[in-house]
Amino acid sequence: MTLRTPADRLANALYLGAGALLVYGLLMWLISLPVFALHRVEVRGDLRHVNKGQVHLVSNRGIRGNFFTVDLDEVRTAFEKLPWVREARVSRYWPDALVVELVEHTPLAHWNGKALLSVEGVVFNTTSRDSLPKLNGFEGSAEEVAEAYKRYSKTLAPAGMRISELSFSPRRAWRLKTDLGLEIALGRVEPDVRLERFSQLYTRVTEKLGAAPAYVDLRYADGFAVKPSSVTETVNRKS
After folding, report:
1. How far, in Å, CA of 94 to CA of 39, rounded?
2. Which whole-number Å values give the CA distances from 96 to 45, 76, 86, 105, in the listed order?
3. Which residues contact 31 (CB under 8 A, 6 or more apart)?
4. Segments of 179-228 assigned E as strands
5. Residues 181-188: what's their mean pLDDT?
6. pTM of the shown model
7. Mind listing the pLDDT tens digit for each residue in 72-123?
8. Residue 111, strand partner residues
9. Which DSSP helix (H) or strand (E) runs through 73?
10. CA 144, CA 137: separation in Å to the nearest integer?
């Protein structure tokens, strides 16, 4: 029986370590050969706003390495920095390509006059010439404003109105304007309930005034103030 001394064990460990380093070095050399270079980036998706120039720019600046060494997360992050890109999924395609699947934001509205708001309530820094409603809010309120816009739109739809502007103040007070030019002050207390009541009474209010109202203040516990032109009339919701 041969007994191994500490020196023998140390020598064996060094041999194994050297062998592992040699194998690693050979592997790194092999995968860095020009034959594994990336020659193509295939971009997929229903793209309406991301153009070829942006894709070319990101491909040139955001992709480093070859088929094996490229960092897929790094490439994904580079594409997701494009203003219109909501999500990017990146995969390798043997032997020399990357496949990038892009999902664009779906715009819901203009946001604070300088950006766009997506249907998910995400602010993305770009502009659009599309006819979109104008939503305004304070920092961190975008998702809440987007959800309120959807709810209030459904509430006003039976009355034949669409929201053209919706604002949410730092004091958490709501104010909106419809496509008919009607301005509505919702305030902070039970805005959903009060808007629902007004929507149900809109036809009766219009008939009583003889014209469509220009301004409505719903910040009353038992009624609301209506301004048809230059005269303000209080209409009780029970009348």
Report:
1. 11
2. 20, 18, 26, 29
3. 66, 67, 68, 69
4. 183-187, 215-217, 223-227
5. 96
6. 0.79
7. 999 999 999 999 999 999 999 988 999 999 999 999 999 999 999 999 999 9
8. 115, 135
9. helix 72-80
10. 9
